[in-house]
DNA sequence: AATGAGGACAACCGCACAGAC
DNA sequence: AGTCTGTGCGGTTGTCCTCAT
Protein backbone atom coordinates (compact mmCIF):
# COMPACT_ATOMS: atom_id res chain seq x y z
CA UNK A 1 0.00 0.00 0.00
CA UNK A 2 1.30 3.35 -0.97
CA UNK A 3 1.76 5.91 1.61
CA UNK A 4 -0.90 8.54 1.81
CA UNK A 5 0.22 12.08 1.16
CA UNK A 6 0.80 14.18 4.21
CA UNK A 7 -1.82 16.60 3.02
CA UNK A 8 -3.99 17.41 0.10
CA UNK A 9 -1.80 18.99 -2.51
CA UNK A 10 -4.57 20.74 -4.32
CA UNK A 11 -5.08 24.32 -3.45
CA UNK A 12 -1.96 24.51 -1.36
CA UNK A 13 0.62 27.14 -2.02
CA UNK A 14 4.12 26.12 -2.94
CA UNK A 15 7.36 27.88 -3.62
CA UNK A 16 9.05 30.63 -1.71
CA UNK A 17 7.52 31.82 1.50
CA UNK A 18 6.36 35.38 1.76
CA UNK A 19 7.12 37.56 4.78
CA UNK A 20 3.43 37.47 5.64
CA UNK A 21 3.42 33.71 5.69
CA UNK A 22 6.53 33.69 7.82
CA UNK A 23 4.94 36.04 10.28
CA UNK A 24 1.82 33.91 10.50
CA UNK A 25 3.87 30.82 11.15
CA UNK A 26 6.10 32.47 13.72
CA UNK A 27 3.19 34.04 15.52
CA UNK A 28 1.28 30.81 15.66
CA UNK A 29 4.18 28.72 16.90
CA UNK A 30 5.24 31.28 19.46
CA UNK A 31 1.74 31.33 20.81
CA UNK A 32 0.74 27.69 20.55
CA UNK A 33 3.80 25.67 19.75
CA UNK A 34 3.78 23.72 16.56
CA UNK A 35 1.90 20.70 17.88
CA UNK A 36 0.85 18.58 14.95
CA UNK A 37 2.43 19.94 11.84
CA UNK A 38 -0.33 18.48 9.76
CA UNK A 39 -2.96 20.42 11.61
CA UNK A 40 -0.90 23.56 11.91
CA UNK A 41 -1.49 25.21 8.52
CA UNK A 42 -5.24 25.36 8.95
CA UNK A 43 -4.99 26.62 12.50
CA UNK A 44 -2.41 29.22 11.51
CA UNK A 45 -4.32 30.32 8.46
CA UNK A 46 -1.67 29.15 6.05
CA UNK A 47 -2.36 27.54 2.71
CA UNK A 48 0.69 25.37 3.02
CA UNK A 49 1.44 21.74 3.56
CA UNK A 50 2.33 20.85 7.13
CA UNK A 51 5.59 19.49 5.99
CA UNK A 52 6.39 22.71 4.23
CA UNK A 53 5.63 24.59 7.45
CA UNK A 54 7.89 22.30 9.41
CA UNK A 55 10.76 22.72 7.01
CA UNK A 56 10.32 26.46 6.88
CA UNK A 57 10.39 26.61 10.64
CA UNK A 58 13.25 24.21 11.30
CA UNK A 59 15.49 25.46 8.53
CA UNK A 60 14.79 29.13 8.52
CA UNK A 61 12.46 30.69 11.05
CA UNK A 62 13.49 28.96 14.23
CA UNK A 63 14.95 31.55 16.59
CA UNK A 64 17.87 29.39 17.69
CA UNK A 65 19.57 29.11 14.35
CA UNK A 66 22.44 31.15 13.12
CA UNK A 67 22.41 32.44 9.60
CA UNK A 68 24.98 34.14 7.47
CA UNK A 69 28.59 33.58 6.64
CA UNK A 70 30.25 30.44 7.90
CA UNK A 71 33.29 31.10 10.04
CA UNK A 72 36.68 29.68 9.31
CA UNK A 73 36.32 27.28 12.17
CA UNK A 74 32.95 26.13 10.97
CA UNK A 75 34.39 25.49 7.53
CA UNK A 76 37.18 23.44 8.97
CA UNK A 77 34.79 21.48 11.07
CA UNK A 78 32.58 20.72 8.11
CA UNK A 79 35.48 19.55 5.99
CA UNK A 80 36.90 17.33 8.68
CA UNK A 81 33.56 15.90 9.65
CA UNK A 82 32.68 15.28 6.06
CA UNK A 83 35.86 13.29 5.71
CA UNK A 84 34.77 11.24 8.67
CA UNK A 85 31.03 11.04 8.17
CA UNK A 86 30.38 11.61 4.51
CA UNK A 87 27.12 13.21 3.48
CA UNK A 88 25.53 12.75 6.86
CA UNK A 89 24.49 16.31 7.20
CA UNK A 90 22.47 15.94 10.31
CA UNK A 91 25.41 14.33 12.08
CA UNK A 92 27.66 17.09 10.88
CA UNK A 93 25.14 19.71 11.89
CA UNK A 94 25.07 18.30 15.38
CA UNK A 95 28.65 19.52 15.76
CA UNK A 96 27.88 22.98 14.50
CA UNK A 97 25.64 24.74 16.96
CA UNK A 98 22.85 26.77 15.47
CA UNK A 99 23.49 25.56 11.94
CA UNK A 100 20.96 23.40 10.17
CA UNK A 101 21.79 20.33 8.19
CA UNK A 102 20.23 21.89 5.14
CA UNK A 103 22.37 24.97 5.41
CA UNK A 104 25.52 22.92 5.86
CA UNK A 105 24.59 20.72 2.96
CA UNK A 106 24.05 23.72 0.73
CA UNK A 107 27.27 25.32 1.87
CA UNK A 108 29.17 22.17 1.15
CA UNK A 109 27.68 21.76 -2.28
CA UNK A 110 28.10 25.35 -3.34
CA UNK A 111 31.38 26.29 -1.68
CA UNK A 112 33.49 23.69 0.02
CA UNK A 113 33.03 20.92 -2.47
CA UNK A 114 34.07 23.15 -5.29
CA UNK A 115 37.00 24.51 -3.35
CA UNK A 116 38.36 21.05 -2.68
CA UNK A 117 37.75 20.09 -6.25
CA UNK A 118 39.71 23.09 -7.47
CA UNK A 119 42.57 22.13 -5.25
CA UNK A 120 42.73 18.72 -6.80
CA UNK A 121 41.16 16.96 -3.88
CA UNK A 122 38.36 14.56 -4.39
CA UNK A 123 35.56 15.96 -2.23
CA UNK A 124 34.09 12.53 -1.79
CA UNK A 125 37.15 10.69 -0.59
CA UNK A 126 39.11 13.71 0.60
CA UNK A 127 42.09 12.31 -1.17
CA UNK A 128 44.17 13.93 -3.86
CA UNK A 129 42.50 13.04 -7.11
CA UNK A 130 45.52 11.27 -8.52
CA UNK A 131 45.62 8.97 -5.57
CA UNK A 132 41.95 8.23 -5.80
CA UNK A 133 42.46 7.39 -9.40
CA UNK A 134 45.30 5.05 -8.61
CA UNK A 135 43.30 3.32 -5.97
CA UNK A 136 40.27 2.89 -8.09
CA UNK A 137 42.42 1.52 -10.82
CA UNK A 138 43.08 -1.65 -8.93
CA UNK A 139 39.55 -1.83 -7.76
CA UNK A 140 40.45 -1.74 -4.12
CA UNK A 141 39.40 1.75 -3.23
CA UNK A 142 35.72 1.01 -3.18
CA UNK A 143 36.38 -1.94 -1.01
CA UNK A 144 38.29 0.17 1.44
CA UNK A 145 35.64 2.80 1.45
CA UNK A 146 33.11 0.13 2.14
CA UNK A 147 35.17 -1.12 5.02
CA UNK A 148 35.46 2.34 6.38
CA UNK A 149 31.79 2.99 5.95
CA UNK A 150 30.98 -0.23 7.67
CA UNK A 151 33.17 0.64 10.60
CA UNK A 152 31.71 4.09 10.73
CA UNK A 153 28.14 2.95 10.72
CA UNK A 154 28.94 0.40 13.33
CA UNK A 155 30.43 3.13 15.43
CA UNK A 156 27.33 5.22 15.15
CA UNK A 157 25.22 2.32 16.22
CA UNK A 158 27.59 1.50 19.01
CA UNK A 159 27.53 5.04 20.22
CA UNK A 160 23.81 4.93 20.51
CA UNK A 161 23.97 1.68 22.38
CA UNK A 162 26.77 2.66 24.65
CA UNK A 163 26.27 6.33 25.08
CA UNK A 164 24.56 6.00 28.39
CA UNK A 165 27.20 3.68 29.71
CA UNK A 166 30.02 5.76 28.34
CA UNK A 167 28.66 8.93 29.73
CA UNK A 168 28.21 7.29 33.05
CA UNK A 169 31.76 6.04 33.10
CA UNK A 170 33.34 9.29 32.13
CA UNK A 171 30.70 11.67 33.32
CA UNK A 172 31.44 14.50 30.97
CA UNK A 173 29.54 17.59 31.91
CA UNK A 174 28.20 17.94 28.44
CA UNK A 175 28.51 16.09 25.23
CA UNK A 176 31.44 17.22 23.19
CA UNK A 177 31.57 18.43 19.66
CA UNK A 178 34.42 18.59 17.27
CA UNK A 179 35.98 21.85 16.45
CA UNK A 180 39.19 21.99 14.56
CA UNK A 181 41.68 24.61 15.37
CA UNK A 182 43.26 26.87 12.87
CA UNK A 183 46.21 25.55 10.98
CA UNK A 184 49.15 27.81 10.64
CA UNK A 185 49.63 28.79 7.04
CA UNK A 186 52.57 27.22 5.34
CA UNK A 187 54.07 27.54 1.97
CA UNK A 188 52.55 24.92 -0.20
CA UNK A 189 54.33 23.03 -2.90
CA UNK A 190 52.48 19.82 -3.40
CA UNK A 191 49.66 17.78 -2.12
CA UNK A 192 50.76 14.90 -0.02
CA UNK A 193 48.23 12.41 1.11
CA UNK A 194 46.30 13.52 4.07
CA UNK A 195 46.89 12.14 7.49
CA UNK A 196 43.47 12.41 8.89
CA UNK A 197 41.80 9.54 10.57
CA UNK A 198 40.14 8.31 7.46
CA UNK A 199 43.39 8.40 5.61
CA UNK A 200 45.28 6.53 8.25
CA UNK A 201 42.60 3.94 8.46
CA UNK A 202 42.27 3.50 4.76
CA UNK A 203 45.97 3.45 4.19
CA UNK A 204 46.42 0.79 6.74
CA UNK A 205 43.88 -1.43 5.11
CA UNK A 206 45.07 -0.52 1.71
CA UNK A 207 48.69 -1.33 2.39
CA UNK A 208 47.86 -4.58 3.97
CA UNK A 209 45.59 -5.68 1.23
CA UNK A 210 47.86 -4.60 -1.53
CA UNK A 211 50.84 -6.29 -0.09
CA UNK A 212 49.20 -9.51 0.74
CA UNK A 213 46.21 -10.70 -1.13
CA UNK A 214 45.85 -13.62 1.18
CA UNK A 215 45.32 -11.18 3.91
CA UNK A 216 42.53 -9.43 2.14
CA UNK A 217 39.55 -9.09 4.30
CA UNK A 218 36.46 -10.75 2.99
CA UNK A 219 33.27 -8.85 3.24
CA UNK A 220 32.35 -10.84 6.28
CA UNK A 221 35.45 -9.59 8.00
CA UNK A 222 34.81 -5.92 7.73
CA UNK A 223 35.00 -5.65 11.44
CA UNK A 224 38.27 -7.39 11.87
CA UNK A 225 40.88 -5.41 13.74
CA UNK A 226 43.24 -3.33 11.71
CA UNK A 227 46.76 -4.59 11.22
CA UNK A 228 49.36 -3.46 13.66
CA UNK A 229 50.77 -0.81 11.42
CA UNK A 230 47.32 0.60 11.13
CA UNK A 231 47.49 1.43 14.76
CA UNK A 232 50.83 3.01 14.25
CA UNK A 233 49.34 5.05 11.49
CA UNK A 234 46.45 6.10 13.60
CA UNK A 235 46.93 8.79 16.09
CA UNK A 236 45.13 10.47 18.81
CA UNK A 237 44.94 13.91 20.22
CA UNK A 238 44.34 15.52 23.47
CA UNK A 239 40.80 16.23 24.19
CA UNK A 240 38.71 18.02 26.62
CA UNK A 241 35.11 18.71 27.18
CA UNK A 242 33.57 22.02 27.76
CA UNK A 243 30.52 23.31 29.45
CA UNK A 244 29.20 24.88 26.31
CA UNK A 245 29.26 21.73 24.31
CA UNK A 246 25.99 21.00 22.72
CA UNK A 247 26.14 18.01 20.52
CA UNK A 248 26.92 14.34 20.62
CA UNK A 249 30.31 12.86 20.26
CA UNK A 250 31.14 11.54 16.89
CA UNK A 251 32.61 8.14 16.94
CA UNK A 252 34.61 5.78 14.91
CA UNK A 253 34.51 2.19 15.85
CA UNK A 254 37.48 -0.01 16.17
CA UNK A 255 36.42 -3.52 15.52
CA UNK A 256 36.21 -6.28 17.94
CA UNK A 257 39.33 -8.24 18.57
CA UNK A 258 39.93 -11.22 16.41
CA UNK A 259 41.91 -13.74 18.33
CA UNK A 260 43.18 -15.32 15.17
CA UNK A 261 44.73 -12.12 14.05
CA UNK A 262 48.46 -12.27 13.66
CA UNK A 263 48.93 -8.88 15.15
CA UNK A 264 48.80 -8.12 18.79
CA UNK A 265 46.52 -5.18 18.63
CA UNK A 266 43.44 -5.87 20.58
CA UNK A 267 40.81 -3.24 20.67
CA UNK A 268 38.06 -4.79 22.62
CA UNK A 269 34.93 -2.83 21.98
CA UNK A 270 36.82 0.38 21.79
CA UNK A 271 35.15 3.40 20.45
CA UNK A 272 37.27 6.09 19.01
CA UNK A 273 35.67 9.36 19.87
CA UNK A 274 36.29 12.54 18.07
CA UNK A 275 35.72 15.30 20.48
CA UNK A 276 36.93 18.71 21.29
CA UNK A 277 36.25 22.13 22.59
CA UNK A 278 37.13 25.48 21.28
CA UNK A 279 40.58 24.89 22.61
CA UNK A 280 41.25 21.24 22.23
CA UNK A 281 40.80 18.53 19.75
CA UNK A 282 40.96 14.88 20.33
CA UNK A 283 40.45 11.38 19.28
CA UNK A 284 40.04 8.91 22.00
CA UNK A 285 39.62 5.27 22.52
CA UNK A 286 37.22 4.72 25.29
CA UNK A 287 38.86 2.57 27.82
CA UNK A 288 40.12 2.76 31.32
CA UNK A 289 43.65 4.01 31.28
CA UNK A 290 44.78 7.53 31.72
CA UNK A 291 46.91 9.73 29.57
CA UNK A 292 47.53 13.33 29.17
CA UNK A 293 49.05 14.28 25.91
CA UNK A 294 49.35 17.98 25.54
CA UNK A 295 51.67 19.38 22.94
CA UNK A 296 54.55 21.46 23.08
CA UNK A 297 56.81 24.10 24.14
CA UNK A 298 55.49 24.29 27.59
CA UNK A 299 57.10 20.95 28.01
CA UNK A 300 59.13 20.91 31.10
CA UNK A 301 61.05 17.83 31.93
CA UNK A 302 61.06 18.86 35.54
CA UNK A 303 57.39 18.24 35.78
CA UNK A 304 57.71 15.46 38.21
CA UNK A 305 54.64 13.41 37.80
CA UNK A 306 54.80 13.13 34.06
CA UNK A 307 57.17 11.56 31.67
CA UNK A 308 58.32 13.76 28.89
CA UNK A 309 58.52 12.73 25.32
CA UNK A 310 59.59 14.95 22.51
CA UNK A 311 58.75 14.58 18.91
CA UNK A 312 58.73 17.06 16.09
CA UNK A 313 59.23 19.81 18.57
CA UNK A 314 56.16 18.83 20.45
CA UNK A 315 55.96 17.16 23.75
CA UNK A 316 53.67 14.92 25.56
CA UNK A 317 53.27 14.01 29.13
CA UNK A 318 52.22 10.65 30.16
CA UNK A 319 50.38 10.67 33.34
CA UNK A 320 51.74 8.54 36.07
CA UNK A 321 48.82 6.40 36.99
CA UNK A 322 50.07 6.06 40.51
CA UNK A 323 49.61 9.72 41.17
CA UNK A 324 46.50 11.10 42.66
CA UNK A 325 44.62 12.60 39.80
CA UNK A 326 43.25 15.36 41.88
CA UNK A 327 46.73 16.62 42.65
CA UNK A 328 47.59 16.81 39.02
CA UNK A 329 44.47 18.38 37.73
CA UNK A 330 45.56 21.93 37.95
CA UNK A 331 48.91 21.35 36.35
CA UNK A 332 47.31 19.35 33.62
CA UNK A 333 44.90 22.10 32.90
CA UNK A 334 47.67 24.64 32.85
CA UNK A 335 49.65 22.55 30.48
CA UNK A 336 46.71 21.94 28.27
CA UNK A 337 46.16 25.60 27.75
CA UNK A 338 49.20 25.66 25.57
CA UNK A 339 47.25 23.93 22.88
CA UNK A 340 45.03 26.89 22.63
CA UNK A 341 48.05 29.12 22.28
CA UNK A 342 49.43 27.03 19.50
CA UNK A 343 46.05 26.67 18.01
CA UNK A 344 47.00 23.98 15.66
CA UNK A 345 45.33 20.70 15.25
CA UNK A 346 48.40 19.15 13.82
CA UNK A 347 50.39 20.07 16.87
CA UNK A 348 47.94 18.05 18.82
CA UNK A 349 48.15 15.25 16.36
CA UNK A 350 51.89 15.15 16.48
CA UNK A 351 51.94 15.39 20.22
CA UNK A 352 50.04 12.19 20.44
CA UNK A 353 51.77 10.51 17.61
CA UNK A 354 55.04 11.01 19.32
CA UNK A 355 53.73 10.40 22.75
CA UNK A 356 54.57 7.56 25.00
CA UNK A 357 51.26 6.02 25.33
CA UNK A 358 52.58 2.54 25.58
CA UNK A 359 53.47 1.78 29.14
CA UNK A 360 50.32 2.57 30.92
CA UNK A 361 47.93 1.27 33.43
CA UNK A 362 48.57 -2.11 32.01
CA UNK A 363 51.45 -2.27 34.36
CA UNK A 364 49.02 -2.14 37.14
CA UNK A 365 46.30 -4.35 35.91
CA UNK A 366 48.34 -6.76 33.83
CA UNK A 367 45.90 -6.25 31.09
CA UNK A 368 48.40 -5.81 28.35
CA UNK A 369 45.98 -6.13 25.54
CA UNK A 370 44.56 -2.71 26.17
CA UNK A 371 46.35 0.51 25.68
CA UNK A 372 43.48 2.72 24.81
CA UNK A 373 43.00 5.57 27.16
CA UNK A 374 40.26 7.76 28.38
CA UNK A 375 40.27 9.41 31.70
CA UNK A 376 38.31 12.13 33.27
CA UNK A 377 40.55 14.54 35.09
CA UNK A 378 38.11 17.16 36.10
CA UNK A 379 34.72 18.49 35.25
CA UNK A 380 36.20 20.22 32.27
CA UNK A 381 38.80 17.89 31.03
CA UNK A 382 38.80 14.41 29.74
CA UNK A 383 42.16 13.07 28.75
CA UNK A 384 42.77 10.69 25.97
CA UNK A 385 45.54 8.57 24.72
CA UNK A 386 46.35 6.70 21.64
CA UNK A 387 46.09 2.99 21.62
CA UNK A 388 48.63 0.42 20.68
CA UNK A 389 50.02 -2.81 21.92
CA UNK A 390 53.11 -1.24 23.28
CA UNK A 391 53.55 -2.16 26.89
CA UNK A 392 57.05 -3.41 26.29
CA UNK A 393 59.05 -0.29 25.71
CA UNK A 394 61.47 0.90 28.29
CA UNK A 395 61.04 4.53 27.52
CA UNK A 396 58.70 6.81 25.77
CA UNK A 397 61.43 7.70 23.38
CA UNK A 398 61.74 4.11 22.34
CA UNK A 399 58.06 3.85 21.98
CA UNK A 400 57.83 6.96 19.89
CA UNK A 401 60.69 5.76 17.78
CA UNK A 402 58.91 2.52 17.22
CA UNK A 403 55.73 4.23 16.32
CA UNK A 404 57.08 7.00 14.27
CA UNK A 405 60.42 5.82 13.05
CA UNK A 406 61.70 9.28 13.57
CA UNK A 407 63.15 9.94 16.93
CA UNK A 408 66.06 7.62 17.26
CA UNK A 409 66.85 7.16 13.64
CA UNK A 410 68.97 10.20 13.04
CA UNK A 411 66.17 12.57 12.40
CA UNK A 412 64.66 10.92 9.40
CA UNK A 413 61.47 12.60 8.34
CA UNK A 414 59.66 9.38 7.72
CA UNK A 415 56.47 8.76 9.57
CA UNK A 416 53.39 6.68 9.48
CA UNK A 417 51.64 6.52 6.15
CA UNK A 418 54.81 7.96 4.67
CA UNK A 419 53.73 11.49 5.37
CA UNK A 420 55.59 13.91 7.53
CA UNK A 421 54.23 16.42 9.91
CA UNK A 422 55.05 19.26 7.55
CA UNK A 423 53.47 17.48 4.63
CA UNK A 424 50.42 16.87 6.67
CA UNK A 425 50.17 20.50 7.63
CA UNK A 426 50.62 21.44 4.02
CA UNK A 427 47.83 19.15 3.09
CA UNK A 428 45.41 20.70 5.49
CA UNK A 429 46.47 24.20 4.77
CA UNK A 430 45.89 23.63 1.13
CA UNK A 431 42.68 21.83 1.67
CA UNK A 432 41.37 24.65 3.79
CA UNK A 433 42.59 27.29 1.44
CA UNK A 434 45.38 28.80 3.56
CA UNK A 435 48.14 28.84 1.15
C1' DA B 1 19.47 47.94 -21.59
C1' DA B 2 18.59 43.16 -22.64
C1' DT B 3 19.73 38.59 -22.08
C1' DG B 4 21.73 34.31 -20.93
C1' DA B 5 24.85 31.57 -17.91
C1' DG B 6 26.09 30.27 -13.65
C1' DG B 7 26.02 30.49 -8.65
C1' DA B 8 23.70 30.51 -4.21
C1' DC B 9 20.26 29.17 -1.48
C1' DA B 10 15.50 27.96 -0.24
C1' DA B 11 12.21 24.65 -0.80
C1' DC B 12 10.46 20.32 -2.16
C1' DC B 13 10.35 15.24 -2.81
C1' DG B 14 10.46 10.69 -1.50
C1' DC B 15 12.12 7.28 1.49
C1' DA B 16 12.92 5.39 6.10
C1' DC B 17 11.91 4.75 10.69
C1' DA B 18 9.80 4.99 15.26
C1' DG B 19 5.89 5.23 17.94
C1' DA B 20 0.94 5.29 18.55
C1' DC B 21 -3.20 3.04 17.76
C1' DA C 1 0.82 -7.77 13.82
C1' DG C 2 -0.48 -4.41 10.73
C1' DT C 3 -1.47 0.32 9.65
C1' DC C 4 -1.15 5.14 10.17
C1' DT C 5 1.13 9.33 11.41
C1' DG C 6 4.82 12.37 12.45
C1' DT C 7 9.31 13.32 11.77
C1' DG C 8 14.15 12.99 10.16
C1' DC C 9 17.05 12.79 6.46
C1' DG C 10 19.55 13.19 2.02
C1' DG C 11 19.05 14.24 -2.73
C1' DT C 12 17.13 17.15 -6.12
C1' DT C 13 14.77 21.00 -8.09
C1' DG C 14 13.23 25.73 -8.43
C1' DT C 15 13.90 30.54 -7.91
C1' DC C 16 16.39 34.56 -7.42
C1' DC C 17 20.52 37.14 -7.99
C1' DT C 18 24.83 38.56 -10.12
C1' DC C 19 27.73 39.21 -13.76
C1' DA C 20 29.54 38.95 -18.32
C1' DT C 21 28.51 39.78 -23.00
TrEMBL record:
User: Which segments show compositional bias classed as Basic and acidic residues?
Assistant: 119-138
Signal sequence: where? none
The record, for InterPro entries, names:
Homeodomain-like_sf, Myb_dom, Myb_TF_plants, SANT/Myb
Region (Disordered), start-end ranges: 119-141
Q: Where is the Myb-like domain?
A: 9-61, 62-112
Record Gene3D superfamilies: Homeodomain-like (1.10.10.60)
Q: Which residues form the HTH myb-type domain?
A: 9-61, 62-116
Q: Which SUPFAM superfamilies match?
A: Homeodomain-like (SSF46689)
Keywords per UniProt: Developmental protein, DNA-binding, Nucleus, Repeat, Transcription, Transcription regulation
Concerning PANTHER family, the annotation shows: MYB FAMILY TRANSCRIPTION FACTOR (PTHR10641), MYB TRANSCRIPTION FACTOR MIXTA-LIKE PROTEIN (PTHR10641:SF1347)
**What protein name applies here?**
Uncharacterized protein
Amino acid sequence: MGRSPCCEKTGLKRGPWTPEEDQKLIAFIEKNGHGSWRALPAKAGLRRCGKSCRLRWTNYLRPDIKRGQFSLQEEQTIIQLHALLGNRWSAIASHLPKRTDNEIKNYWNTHLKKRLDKMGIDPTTHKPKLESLTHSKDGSNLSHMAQWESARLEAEARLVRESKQTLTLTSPPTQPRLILNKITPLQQHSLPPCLDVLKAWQNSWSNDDHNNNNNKCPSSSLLMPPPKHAMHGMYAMMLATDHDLESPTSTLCFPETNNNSTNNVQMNSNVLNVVSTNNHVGLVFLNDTSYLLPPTTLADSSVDDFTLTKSFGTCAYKHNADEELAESDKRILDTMSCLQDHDDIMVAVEALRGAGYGSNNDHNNNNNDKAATFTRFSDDVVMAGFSDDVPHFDSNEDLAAENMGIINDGGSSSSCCGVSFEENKDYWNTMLGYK
